Amino acid sequence: MTTKTFGRRGTVAPAPRAAFQPVARPVAPVVVPDCAETPTDEETLFHGNKLLADIPCVTIVLVVALLLIFALERRLALDIGPDGSLDLRSLIAYGGSSYDLVVGRREWWRIGLAPLLHGSEGHLIGNCIALFIVGIRLEWLVGRGWLTLIFFVSALAGAVGSLLGNPHGVVSVGASGAITGLIAALFIASFDPQAESTQMISRLKMSLFFGVPALLPLALGASGNTDYYAHAGGALAGLALAVLPWVVFWSYDSLPRIAGKTLAVASVCSLVCAGFAASRYASYMADAAHYIRASEMPVTAEQIVRRSADLVSRYPRDPRGHLFHAISLIEQRRFAIAETEARAAMTLAASDVAGGPVRSGASALMAMILLVQGRESEAKVMAAESCDTKVSEVRRMLKKTKLCA
């Protein structure tokens, strides 16, 4: 009877039953281990070298791949902000994903690239640390092939979750969906019936340490730059893939170890997606020249007031410049001109691939301008669209002015 376990296979097959034949002298029984019957990919690759077999090769390869990809991102970036963040338009050219880009422009290849990209050094380092810590434990528990499959399926599920959950114009990149899938899988795989209680508790603590901050804010209406919808999509995929072998096969040991094949297929698919990105790279980068660069973005209210007019004159197609100028004019109580600038921001944002959040912010600002001028009915009509936005900062601003229920 097969024992349920999440660990590696270590059983020995029974000796083969001897065939009938004349016997000249006693023959010692031969014991053939399981692995000799059907060599696995890993055994063929490492030739039985236990030291190499125990190295978390897939985890290391994934971390190194993400580091190399980010190094290429920085080299090709149009601009880099003071905080080390890459220019948004560069991320779009590389393969950043949003609903407007993937569904609106039918650029489905972005789903395969966005999980491999990162927006800043801090973003990359945080993901690589979590990937390494969780990956080395999960790789030992479930094997290289299954960890590889969980990573890439969770990456795709995270990309889909991002598309479904975020505002349509929000561009998303990062491997956090894939990593959250690994965290969820580690949580399930921790319940190994043959593991010591200290091991189980240690694995559970690790999965909760990374998993709770990755998922809990979504239930609390989190906002900011973290893509919690990608986390949720990746976690669901990781849970499903971690439970599936246990329910269907009774053990991870019943699955083929296909790390090399899975990595090869994923690499080919990524290269195909990269080919689509390369074919459109030049046009996206040429378009990026018409938008405010990361290093020029104002970050304080004083900078917005002081630099908004200059940004509008230099980047007339960028809706953010007009939005900044409208804010500056409100500070000067020049509401009529501010209304014109806010309307310009809304119009430009409607045709901008990354203009969704700007459009919501401009609509909310327009509603407030109309309210200040005593045009309350017009303000409520204008605020109606923004009241339904998923951008929580905009909703809070409108609720404060009682333009949203």
Would you mind describing this structure in some detail?
This protein is an all-alpha fold. It folds into two domains: 41-288, Rhomboid-like fold, CATH 1.20.1540; 298-400, Serine Threonine Protein Phosphatase 5, Tetratricopeptide repeat, CATH 1.25.40. Helix content is 65%, strand content 0%. The protein is built from 19 helices and no strands. The chain has helices at residues 34-37, 41-46, 50-53, 57-76, 88-94, 99-104, 110-113, 121-142, 144-165, 176-189, 197-219, 228-248, 259-288, 301-314, 319-331, 335-350, 356-372, 376-387, 392-400. The radius of gyration is 27 Å and the shape is elongated. The protein starts with 33 loop residues before the first helix and ends in a 5-residue tail after the last helix.
Summary of the model, kept short:
The protein is mainly α.
User: Helix- and strand-based class?
Assistant: mainly alpha
Could you describe the largest sheet, including whether it forms a barrel? Answer: none
Percent range for β-strand residues: under 5%
Number of contiguous helices: 19
Number of strands: 0
- The name CATH uses for the topology of the largest domain is Rhomboid-like fold
Spatial separation of the terminal alpha carbons? 63 Å
Shape: elongated
CATH class annotation of the largest domain: Mainly Alpha
How are the secondary structure elements laid out?
Blueprint: H1 34-37, H2 41-46, H3 50-53, H4 57-76, H5 88-94, H6 99-104, H7 110-113, H8 121-142, H9 144-165, H10 176-189, H11 197-219, H12 228-248, H13 259-288, H14 301-314, H15 319-331, H16 335-350, H17 356-372, H18 376-387, H19 392-400
